[in-house]
Amino acid sequence: MPLINTQYDSIMREYARRQAQSRQELEERLARIHREIPQLLSLEEAITACQAGKVRAAVSQDTMQRNALENRLQELLKNREALLSEHGLSPSDLEPIYTCPDCQDTGYIGDRKCHCFLQAEIDLLYHQSHLKEVLEKENFHTFSYAWYEGEDREIMRRNVMDARLFIESFDTSFQNLLFLGAVGTGKTFLSNCIAKELMNSCHSVVYLTAFQLFELLSRAAFGGERQAQSYQQTYPYIFDCDLLIIDDLGTELPNSFTVSQFFLCVNERILRKKSTLISSNLDMEALRNIYSERTLSRIISCYTIRQLPGNDIRIKKKLS
Ligand SMILES: [Zn+2]
C-alpha cells in the first residue's frame, strides 16, 4: 500500500532527525579527539591534501604522480592509525555512527528503499511502533529457563534450539513454526526472541494478534476488486513480509470469514515461500475443528510444530 504523504513525511522526518543527531555526535566526538590529540589535525590536513592531489593527478592522467600520492596517502593513513591507537582509538572513531549503516540513515540505497525503510513502513501501517520496546525486554538475552522445572526445562531447551535453528537457516530454507501451549507458557516470549533476531538481521517482520489480523483482513476484503489484489493494495506486507507472526490464534471470535481468511493467509504465504510463525493456546484437535481439515493439513505439511511445556509463567513471575 502506498504510504499517504503524511506517513511518508513522518518516516523521512525521523531519518532527518537521526542524521542531524549523528552529525552532532560526530562533531562533539571530533572536537574531543582533537583536544586530546592536537597533532592529529596536521596529519588530517596532509591526508586531505594528498587525496585532492590524487584526484587532480587522475584528471590530468599523470599516473606516476598518482601512484606516488597513493603511496604517500597509505603511509599517512598508517601513521594516523598508529597515533589513534596510542590513545585507544581507531579510524572508525572519526566517522559518523549511523542507526542503519546500510543506507547511512537516508532510507534509500540508490533509488531503492532500504530494509530499514520497509520496516518503518510496516511499523507505521500495522501500528507496531511499540514492538521495538517490547523486544528490548523480551529477547534471547533476557530469556530464562528458571521458570521451567524438571523435564519441562529440557523440552524448553530443545524448543529454544529449534528457534535458533529457524533463525540461522531463515535465508536458506523455507520454514514455518507453530507454537502450541497453555496460556503463559512463553509462546509470545519465544516468538519475540525470534522477531528480535530477524529484525536485527534486516528482515521485515509483521507482528499481529489473530484478532488484529482478521480485523485488517476484513477491512481489506470489503475493499472491492479481486480479494487478493485488494489485500495487496491495502496491507501488502501480510503476504509479503519476511516473517508474519500471528499471536494467540483462537482468541478471536471464529466465524466462516475468519476460517476462510486464515486458510487464504496460510496458503498464500506458503505459495510465496514466506515464513509464518503462529502461536495458539488451542491443541491440534481444536484447531482442526475451528479452521478446517484443509488448513490443518497445510500446516502439518509445512510447519514445524512445537508444544511449549509448563504452567502459567506469568503467575510464577508475579509470585516470585
Ligand atoms: Zn537503512
Notes on the structure:
- It is elongated and about 80 Å long.
- The protein is of the alpha/beta class.
- It has helices at 5-36, 40-59, 63-86, 115-125, 131-137, 150-168, 187-200, 210-221, 227-234, 237-240, 256-271, 284-291, 293-302, 313-319; strands at 108-109, 112-113, 177-180, 205-209, 243-249, 275-280, 304-307.
- Helix 5 (131-137) crosses helix 7 (187-200).
- It has 2 domains: 5-94; 126-319, 3-Layer(aba) Sandwich (Rossmann fold), CATH 3.40.50.300.
- The protein starts with a helix and ends with a helix.
- The strands form 2 sheets. A 5-stranded parallel sheet has the order 4-5-6-3-7, with helices on both faces. The chain has a two-stranded antiparallel ribbon with strand order 1-2.
- Bound molecules: zinc ion.
- Zinc ion is lined by residues 100, 102-103, 114, 116.
Radius of gyration computed on alpha carbons: 26 Å
Bound molecules: zinc ion
**How many helix segments?**
14
The parts where pLDDT drops under 50 for at least 5 residues are: none
Instruction: Please tell me the overall pLDDT.
Output: 89
CATH architecture of the largest domain: 3-Layer(aba) Sandwich
Structural class: alpha/beta
Could you estimate the helical fraction of the residues in percent?
Answer: 55-70%
What is the assigned CATH homologous superfamily of the largest domain?
P-loop containing nucleotide triphosphate hydrolases
Molecular shape:
elongated
The strand order across the widest sheet is 4-5-6-3-7
Q: What is the CATH topology classification name of the largest domain?
A: Rossmann fold
Strand content: 5-15%
Task: Give the CATH level 1 class of the largest domain.
Answer: Alpha Beta
Indicate the multimeric state: single chain
Integer count of domains: 2
Please report the distance between the alpha carbons of the first and last residues. Answer: 46 Å
